[in-house]
Amino acid sequence: MDHFHLYQYGAVITEVYDGDTCTVEFDLGFKIHFTEKVRLIGINAPEVRGDERERGLISRDRLREKILNQAVFIETEKDEKEKYGRYLGKIYLKNSDDSLLCINDWMVDEGLAVYHKY
Fold first, then answer.
1. Which fold has domain 8-115?
2. Angle at 79 between CA 38 and CA 48, to 5 degrees
3. What is the average pLDDT across 40-57?
């Protein structure tokens, strides 16, 4: 992702609900900002309720530590919302060497989520 394309945005993560859902403040430039929920596409994390609660809280808390209040890049899936009203997207965090870390893949690599097709 050397440069931006359609459906790629600068953003700040303002809330992490669980291991695969965040609230994001998008920056479209020209002082245009808006806030939406984003579901990390291609992965599934344990739920923070029910039988998976313990693992779900760990997954959520690790994601919070990694990206909460951080400037990120988001690539959405065609800018369309899914059935629960969230945009689907990949979140990228800039590393100290200016490379980009795909948070979706990082969650799986850390054992906090699994790859999942919708």
1. OB fold (Dihydrolipoamide Acetyltransferase, E2P) (2.40.50)
2. 15
3. 96
